[in-house]
Amino acid sequence: MSRALPRSIAAVSGAILAFGIAVAPAAAQTDYPRKNITLIVPFAAGGPTDVISRIVSDHMSRTLGQQIIIENIVGAGGTTATTRAMRAAPDGYTLETGHMGTHAAAVALYPNLAYKPDVDFEPISLIAGTPVLILARKDFPAKDLKEFVAYLKTNVDKLNMAHAGVGSVSFTSCLLLNSILQVKPTSIPYQGTGPAMNALVAGQVDYMCDQIVNAVPQILGGTIKAYAVGTAQRNPSLPDLPTTKEAGLPEFEVSAWNALFAPKGTPKPIIDKLADALDKALDDENTRKRLLELGSDLPDKAGRGPGPLAAKVKSEIARWTPIIKAAGPTN
Ligand code: MLT
Predict the structure, then answer these.
(1) How many helices (H) and strands (E) does the chain have?
(2) For position 21, what pLDDT does the model report?
(3) What number does the ligand 1 atom closest to the CA of 210 have?
(4) Is the minimum distance from the CB of 164 to ligand 1 under 6 angstroms?
(5) Does any ligand 1 atom lie closer than 6 A to the CB of residue 317?
(6) How many angstroms is it from 167 CA to the middle of ligand 1?
């Protein structure tokens, strides 16, 4: 015997089913987040991206009422993790902290990059600007930037430079430095500048270009040398450190940035909720203090949210592509 439903009932059930499918994602968006969120950090624990991510996610977890769990995925200068983040489900439960390297410089450094930073992600917001410093081991034989430059030019065959892989801020910044000075040191990659900094402190490597967040404690503790900061103004956390312009190398102007991204297609209400939680973190006195003490440069209200980050990614790809091409082969 046929068990077919009368046509009118079938039509109503079809409509309910269709309505159910249509409203399910919307309901999931309004009660977001219902479980822990994974925040992918594309470098080793203890480095600048990790430290910044932990500071802001701590406050964001409280605002969102769910824990943000950091997952460090290393490799290929941050591009392995960024590819993973790009392929994650666009449901707000996998995010990434990207930066000037992963979401700008990598475009020119990897001709076959699996993702397009300005197309394959939903920008959430800038977290912090992170000026880049020229650093060396504690006993490096140069007392200021002029001597450092002269020493590098005459001894480069004996020197090595630490970085966090092709695609990282440290690699890209020193690529610019080495290209200005026309030197090619031995290049030593680490899985992040957390471990690279340990090698610099131990005197196993000679120099590095790193984000300020990773260097302030070591500079203040006297375990490494800092020659200059690549920004137009001195940094309040290191007021005695000259700018590269003051120290005689104005061509080296680099300030990196870290930002929050979600996979393309993550619904707007979720992006807005995350941007709002980050905004609250950046307004929180204790969170601000922790980031500012490490030398970060915090975006003002107008510089936060998806719009300014989308513009930043585009302008940074445009800035770094010709610099990297002019520097020539990266190996
Ligand atoms: C890190 O967290 O290790 C850095 O952001 C690496 C870099 O880009 O230099």
Answers:
(1) 11, 9
(2) 42
(3) 9
(4) yes
(5) no
(6) 9
Whether residue 49 is predicted with pLDDT greater than 80 in this model: the reply is yes
* Beta pairing class for 160-163 and 224-229: unpaired
**47 Cβ closer than 6 Å to some ligand 1 atom:** yes
Question: Ligand 1 centre from 49 Cα, in Å?
Answer: 6
The string of pLDDT tens digits covering residues 229-246 is: 999 999 999 999 999 999
- Please give the C-alpha separations between residue 163 and each of 10, 18, 141, 190, 191, in angstroms, as whole numbers: 64, 53, 20, 6, 8
Tell me, yes or no, if the pTM score tops 0.85.
yes
| pLDDT bracket for residue 28 (50, 70, 90) | low
DSSP 222: T
Residue 7 has pLDDT above 80, yes or no: no
Residue 297 gets which letter from DSSP? B
CA of 212 to the centre of ligand 1 (A): 11
As given in the structure block, the two tokens for residue 99 are: 């930066």
**Shortest-distance Cα residue to atom 3 of ligand 1:** 192
Question: Distance between the two ends of the chain, CA-based, in angstroms?
Answer: 74
Between helix 48-64 and helix 268-283 the angle, nearest 10°, is: 110
Q: Is 331 exposed, middle or buried (0-12, 13-18, 19+ CB in 10 A)?
A: exposed
How do residues 170-229 score in pLDDT, each as one tens digit?
999 999 999 999 999 999 999 999 999 999 999 999 999 999 999 999 999 999 999 999
Q: The tokens 């009932």 sit on which residue?
A: 9
Strand partners, 243: 229
Q: Which helix (H) or strand (E) holds 130?
A: strand 121-137
Cα gap 284→282, rounded to integer Å? 6
Element (H, E) at 59: helix 48-64
Cis peptide upstream of residue 33 (ω within 30 degrees of 0): yes
List the Cα angle 157/146/228 in 5-degree steps: 100
Q: What is the pLDDT of residue 125?
A: 98
C-beta 123 within 6 A of ligand 1: no
The model's pLDDT over 70-86, given as tens digits with 9 standing for 90+, comes to 999 999 999 999 999 99
The pLDDT of residue 11 is above 70 = no
Cα 48 to ligand 1 centroid, rounded to whole Å: 6
